[in-house]
């Protein structure tokens, strides 16, 4: 709701139509009822041409919507390397993070460490909700090429702005992202940091029965 013709064109991937609308003098900075600008809609449209059009007309890359997501965060969430590269080239900030949401319990695990059924889905959602920065969402979803891009663009490797106090390597430990954990360790991730309940990344990996990640963390 509240989408302008420009937003609709960009969401649909119609870069040429978007350019013509902008030529009429329409502002690139109007937002819809969700706080999403035309540039954010260009990311949702998953078309680099449309994104380039709105960036070239002054669209701001570092605006947060009402869910505290930046366009770069959305691109990382979608796992779209071309969009992420375009945004980073336009000086998108990988360290933007929204406010932490209300306190939540850690993901529920069975006694054997495995997530199960609705509890497993709830745990996965909790991990994603805890992922407040671009680096964290890449870690949680194992978008590891994008994770490397975030590190190359000075993402804060030990940032933990979420309610549980998990860093990106805590998230890798919880979801079993061994490749991501290796990259984070190379990027200077600390294994000594504790979350709000005193858990280190090693402790989370053990609790979640993530054997490969745990082995890597124990060797680090």
Automatic annotation (TrEMBL):
Pfam families: Ank_2 (PF12796). Residues 112-121 have a biased composition (Acidic residues). Keywords: ANK repeat, Repeat. Residues 100-123 are annotated as: Disordered. SUPFAM superfamilies: Ankyrin repeat. This is ANK_REP_REGION domain-containing protein.
